[in-house]
Amino acid sequence: MDGIVADALGLPTRRGCEGPGTPAERTEAFWASAAAEQEPGETRAAWRSQGHSLIRTVSFAGGGAAELDVPYGPFTLPLRDSFLDRAFECWVHAGDIAEAVHYPYAPPAAGHLHHMIDLAARHLPATIAHRRRTGLSGPPRTLVAAGTPGRTLHLEIEGDGGGHWHIPLDSPAALPSPDEEVAHVALDALEFCRLAAGHVPPEEAAAGQLGDREAIRDVLRATASLSRL
């Protein structure tokens, strides 16, 4: 994943991670390369060095770097969002390691966690639309013109870093509107992040749910599908 951002910034890519492709394709290519046979310490040192280069480069890049788009195969992210995505991935996987070795590991600060949750929530409309095109979500109930209010799910994230998001259900181009709300889902902030990381099945997410059951199911499943591997 860091190699994708490095490519976009014109930095050298880690050996074994070269070339275009989706995150899954690049991961498979790395696993098949000689670099995958490195000792764990070598892998960690190479990753940390690359991470420092990414942060150092962006820190001195000036305001123009914010306009850069990072390609992830079928979609792109603005550079700022790609670093938010990176922060989320680093936190989640560091938490996996900490749990495995029984090491205390606190969640991010509330402000940082809010930005990560917001990134996931902003991607839900397009994710639902993509899943609908592949038959994984129910059909749209109401077709509305772009920029006009449509059916909406109210996503309430509780706890530190939480907030309220209104998710358009039938088209990413529709405007979410509290007046068009057909369902309400309430989730703890950390539980939502675990769902977005693919660490909990959507059917088992501890959620308060009210309203259209299909809409709720589509949003919870779309959240779980944000995990790439």
UniProtKB/TrEMBL annotation:
InterPro entries in the cross-refs: DinB/YfiT-like
Name of the protein in its database record: MDMPI N domain containing protein
Organism: Streptomyces syringium
